[in-house]
Amino acid sequence: MLFNFVLIVFIVLVIVTVFVEFRRMRRITLCSMLSFGNVLYNALTPALCFYEPQVVWAFELYVNDAGLEINELGLVRSMLAACVFQLGILIVACLGKKKNIEKSISSNSKHIYRAATVVGMFLLLLGVAGVMWIGLKYNGQLMGLYKITYFERSALALNNPAQAFLMNLGIYGAAQLIVVFLLTDRPKWAVSVLLMMTLHAVGMKSKFPVFWVLLVFSGVVVFEKKSIIRMLVPIGFTALILSSMSFLRGVQNISELPLYIATYWEEIGEVVSNPWGNDIPGPSAMTYYVLNTQPDFTIAPIWDTIKIMIPSSLVDRGMLLPEIYAEKMIGSGYAKGLGFGWPLICDGFLLFGWIGIGLFSGIVSLLARFVETGHSRMTETSKILLKIICFSLTPFALYSIRESMGGLIKALVVMSVLVWLPTWLFANRLPLIMRRITNNAELK
After folding, report:
1. Tens digit of pLDDT for each residue in 392-432?
2. 3 state SS for 172-223
3. What is the DSSP string of 229-264?
4. pTM of the predicted model, to two decimals?
5. I need a labelling partner for 371 at 20 to 30 A (CA). Which of 64, 249, 268, 287 fits?
6. Are 248 and 202 a contacting pair, CB within 8 Å?
7. Stretch among 11-15, 57-61, 211-215, 372-376 having the lowest mean pLDDT
């Protein structure tokens, strides 16, 4: 009875948040996406566990392996944490002013799109360089990364932080290219980048690249109404690959992918039909463990935020909270790089208890609001760049729910300094460069 009441409260909070945001901006906003992420990673698994426990058997397995039993009170605490997190989003949504920046954006400033394309291409090339570099270190082959096993992936990335960083830049560059290609009506190029990143994700046995670019691609197609029916084909194909990645990780060599799919297509179908059998319950299992083991309050989330800003290649940061608690849950089978995700709920709860959950939710929502709203005195170039940034951040609304505050801030800093700032600087310099070239041509 208590769980039903808390669940109803949560549903009402989500509906009101989405309604308030849609009324304010007349579209789905980043705060609305945060609400969807809260539903997916914090609330849906406990709800399914309460009503249909056989569906989320992986969640029960994770919790039981950590030495805990699932009970109604524990599920109520998990759902209550999701309610507090949603309340923080709703408060920020209610404080926002009614504004729609897209109406003031003109399509005449092509130089911002050119600048975004150049920066995106450059970052994508850096990602390719990272793939080749780490492949050479792994087995002496340029494409050696695509021959690793799943269990080697985490250790390889942790032992080669510079190469892993370059590959992340490649993902951010690909996302920006997809946004620009779709906004400038070049869907074939956008689909090509999407499929390229999908194959890259299968080859390196990681969901992150395909997860990121798929959400960016889908966000632009849906919100900008870019040939939605026709774009359902690449979206559906990529979503199918993403949902079956937990099984496709068994492909040791990417050249064997077609044969592997033909051989195990029935097993892949079972994996696709059971999304709660793998990664999705992970963050909820971590939240359940933290909320129900009564840990002491600590300033470790703040300290971790500082430590994570320091490159691991320069200083040994030691074990961070996600690694400490992953080791507690997994036990003797733990290896560095394994884990279940680290929801913001855990950071907030360990810092200030239930109040901390709402505080961290409010901080993330304010960040989303700041990025999305911008400033009324922005130039046309800045407004178009803000539009590109908002679409590029579509995955962040889901990713941030299962990421620590330190990891979230670091990713935003990296993207701001190495993606958006160069785009803005190049966009403001590009008209001057083009004018100078034209003047020189006229003089000659």
Report:
1. 888 877 777 888 888 888 888 888 899 988 888 888 776 66
2. HHHHHHHHHHHHCCCHHHHHHHHHHHHHHHHHHCCCHHHHHHHHHHHHHHHH
3. HHHHHHHHHHHHHHHTHHHHTT-SSGGGHHHHHHHS
4. 0.83
5. 287
6. yes
7. 372-376
